[in-house]
Amino acid sequence: MTVPGRRSSTFSRLLRHGFTDPSGAERLLDLPELSALRDDPVLLDALGATADPDLALRGLVRLVEAQAETERQTLTTTLLSAKPFRDRLLGVLGASEALADHLARHPRDWESLVTYEAADLHPGVAEFEQGLAEATDAVSLRVAYRRCLLAIAARDVCGTTDVAQAAAELADLATATLRAALAIARSAEPADAATCRLAVIAMGKCGGHELNYVSDVDVIFVGEPTEGADEGKAIQAATRLASHLMRICSETTVEGTIWPVDANLRPEGRNGPLVRTLSSHLAYYQRWAKTWEFQALLKARAVAGDPELGAQYIDAVSPLVWQAAERENFVPDVQKMRRRVVDNIPAAQVERELKLGPGGLRDVEFAVQLLQLVHGRSDATLHSGTTLDALAALAAGGYVGRADASQLDEAYRFLRSMEHRIQLYRLRRTHLVPEDETDLRRLGRSLGLRTDPVVELNKEWKRHAAVVRRLHEKLFYRPLLDAVAQLAPGEIRLSPRAAGQRLEALGYADPAAALRHLEALASGVSRKAAIQRTLLPVLLGWFADSADPDAGLLGFRKVSDALGKTPWYLRLLRDEGAAAENLARVLSAGRLAPDLLLRAPEAVAILGDPEGLKPRGRDHLEQEVLAAVGRADDAEHAVAAARGVRRRELFRTAAADLIGSYGTEDNPREQDPGALVDRVGEAVTDLNAVTIAGALRAAVRAEWGEELPTRFAVIGMGRFGGHELGYGSDADVLFVHEPREGVDEQEAGRAANRVVTEMRRLLQLPTADPPLLIDADLRPEGKSGPLVRTLKSYGAYYRRWSLVWESQALLRAAPMAGDRELADRFIELVDPLRYPAEGLGEDAVREIRRLKARMESERLPRGADPTLHAKLGRGGLSDVEWTVQLLQMRHGWVEPGLRTTRTREALAAAHAAGLIPTEEAQTLDEAWVLATRVRNAVMLVRGRPGDTFPSDPRELAAVGRYLGYESGHVGEMVDDYRRITRRARAVVEELFYGA
User: Fold this and answer.
1) CB 655 within 8 A of CB 604
2) CA-CA distances (angstroms) from residue 321 to 293, 297, 316, 369, 391?
């Protein structure tokens, strides 16, 4: 008798045995149906050993209740007397609600778990065929299938088989099921069966002998006519049989479904015929197949139907699989496949995805398959469709480090075990780790984690996923380092040929040179070599993700040679997570940024500072430059210091632009290309302005000390004045001066001219730093006019002689350096010219249109494609800017927002003022931003300015990556450019020419 308020001893025992609802369990144990079992201590121990004792007890009650009176005692007696049977039955009931449902519907099926012969421990296809032999239709096939599945699950949850053996048994059961389904289909259509030969080829996990509990079974069908039959009619008959087979397995009946049969891996996918002849298959694979299709064929295995035809198919396609790495498009295909495809996973599920999430099963499977494709062409030991067998073969052949392979094997087995147990519970196809505490507890206990199942499960899962994340990329590269560094005695290494094949497959155009760089970087026992061996596997992956991996690796070697002995450099790359990836992106994206970095490698520190990629403001830069000029001994050293600051800031700007355009693992790609363009334009304009200010100060100090005899200002024009400079732009300027009080005008003029001449000389001196070219051709009278004028002279010229194109050019005039008060008075002088009162007259508008038309016909370089020239081509920069500038000159006198030197600001102001409809404004803005980015990309990639897309394929691909196009999509990039600029030109025709 239990004392009121105190728990019974049974309640406490149930708690100790892992029950979470001991009160409910007590009630179930008190049911009359369990009278023969309730007092047996062995039962509680066996229930407590299951994944979910409560679930196991509920399932047991349902099973006992479902027995006929005459059978109930047989079940209970067997349960108490036969430990192997007890463990099997309760193990299944505690892990799978779905199989408990099956047993309740088919109460005699428990008997299939009683026998414990040697053949029962490791059944194969023949044993499963015997188990399905009595099935005559879709319903009876499902019942027999579940009965066989019950035995597989029992061996799995009891540990009689490991996860790889269970997966192989599931694949063998699928093979037997496909054969049984085909036999049912053939018996239903004997005429069709007599007309054709049909072979069923398993693909995917079924073909690889590593199937899940619930998974699509991927197949390909091959058909041939029987002797004397018409081929067309035979293929139709084979198609009917194949369709019937798919329905038998896939359709839902009173006994549910088995699994979907998926034939979408066939040539042309769901758009192609369901059944083809062998010759048709081969013709497709030889001419049209993509790399992923050969990757899929790695797992092809003939499983049902005509065995001779199945063998012929495998024999015919196997050589094609192992020649895939020699295909012309293999490298870009591989690069595309290697990029993560998690975009389609809902954000809330990414962290729970066992298969596709970071560190998931797909990472291991893909890495192994890619290495098989690369090296299997010369090593037949790698020709396995089973992931773990292939991984072991890769390790045995030295293609993967043994320690890495062992860790991946362990992680893959754990993750597959999780996947199996999750699917087994309700026999549903899922790869998501559950969120419910009860489900997590059952899952943890099913994997042997009993102390604190939920905490232990999460810990082990995250640990194994982290191993996969860390190793799946390095798997490609670490053996390359072992091959050249030769540090691990006894380890089988890649041969030079195999190493070259791997590098070539990963996009390296010169594998021999790449191996030499790796040897130089990774060989030896120094601290530098040790750290670089740790870094290189990851860096090589980032280089391979770019358009020019060879340049990235060469650049890293040069930077490392320059900085390798400085402790902070290696510490930066080792400890600052973002620094190494940022460096890899910068070094492999083109020539400009690496050239700037290699002139002063210490600038690499910028890449590790969280604030390092943000542009410095003009005030900060001017203070630094003028201080450096003040410390210098002479003008040459002063301007060299100023140009050094400019070089560093150009690198900062280019690095930020590249990293923002490419994105990194932690920071996705910048989604607003206009923001990238604006940041570059503002930053380059600021650093050119302060460099000119430094050169002005240096020139004045060298001859006149602290003060020039005349007040002097530099006015920015063109893109310089518009704060829209690109990496390769000259600085368009006007020089203005005004004699100081008491200074003779001629003396002031001579001083001003000498200062301009000296500034230009200093800024173009041959040094390691990029020159800054000053262009004053927009001055009054152009090249024929004086280089520098007084403010009064400008006023006189503009009042008397100014042409409409000069007024248009002055729309971009903005103070840049020198005397600010004088510069502001210059701006006041020209405002009435650029924003004329009452707007432009019709004669002036016609003149501007005439000038634009003449420029289009005369200035486009000979042979240039007008649809692809970013500056002068159709819908390019010139089109957009002249359209916006015409609006500024016509309406700037009444619309203050139009009084800006910046194109995008003026365009936005015109839209806000109702001068341009929304769609047209967006079209012009998109085209202007794109054309600007193309020019920036060309300079970043080639290291020299250009206005059109490069012809070199690698350079063109690099421009594409900068613009956000994946490898192999340059044609799409060019088409998009033409489409966007064509639409912009239509707007220009309407708004500028009045068409």
Assistant:
1) no
2) 9, 7, 10, 11, 18
| Residue pair 956/948 in contact by the 8 Å Cβ criterion | no
Cα angle 125, 127, 128; round to 5: 65
If you ran DSSP here, which 8-state letter would residue 339 be given? Answer: S
Contact 908, 921 (CB under 8 A): yes
For the chain, the distance separating the N- and C-terminal CA atoms, rounded to the nearest angstrom, is 102
C-alpha distances in angstroms, 622 versus 265, 625, 756? 63, 5, 19
Mean pLDDT split into 10-residue runs, the chain, 995 residues: 55 89 92 82 91 97 93 91 93 97 96 75 91 95 97 94 96 98 97 97 97 96 96 97 97 93 96 97 93 93 98 96 82 62 58 84 89 88 96 91 91 97 95 93 95 94 90 77 62 81 87 92 82 84 86 92 82 78 91 91 85 90 94 92 94 94 82 94 96 96 91 97 92 96 93 95 87 91 92 94 92 96 97 93 92 86 90 95 96 96 97 96 97 96 94 93 87 95 96 85
DSSP-assigned states of every residue in 664-732 = -SSSPPPS-HHHHHHHHHHHHHHHHHHHHHHHHHHHHHHHHTT--SEEEEEEE-HHHHTT---TT--EE
Strand partners, 558: none
Q: What is the C-alpha to C-alpha distance for residues 546 and 590, in angstroms, rounded to an integer? A: 10
Strands 731-739 and 774-775: parallel
Q: What is the dihedral of CA 392, 398, 400, 401, to 10 degrees?
A: 100
Q: Are 625 and 694 in contact (CB under 8 A)?
A: yes
The amino acid sitting at 6 is: R
Helix or strand (DSSP H, E) at 790: strand 788-790
- How many Å apart are CA 421 and CA 451, to the nearest integer? 19
Residues with Cβ within 8 Å of residue 578, at least 6 apart in sequence:
607, 608, 610, 664, 666
- Tokens 């130089």 — which residue? 520
Quote the tokens at residue 506.
Answer: 């990963």
Residue 29 in tokens: 């144990």
- Helix and strand numbers (H, E) in the chain are 44, 10
Give the relative orientation of helices 83-95 and 437-446 as an angle to the nearest 10 degrees. Answer: 150
CA atoms within 13 A on the CB side of 701: 19
Phi and psi, residue 717, nearest 5°: -125, 175
Q: Which residue has the tokens 């280019």?
A: 654
pTM: 0.77
**Could you please report the per-residue DSSP string of 180-234?**
HHHHHHHHH-HHHHHHEEEEEEE-HHHHTT---SS--EEEEEEEEEPTT--HHHH
What gap in Å lies between CA 962 and CA 827, rounded to an integer? 38
> Would you call 165 helix, strand, or coil by DSSP?
helix
Q: How many angstroms separate the Cα of 688 from the Cα of each of 490, 595, 730, 764?
A: 58, 19, 10, 13
Phi-psi region of 211 (alpha: psi -120 to 50; beta: other; left: phi over 0): beta
What tokens does 455 get?
Answer: 């905490």
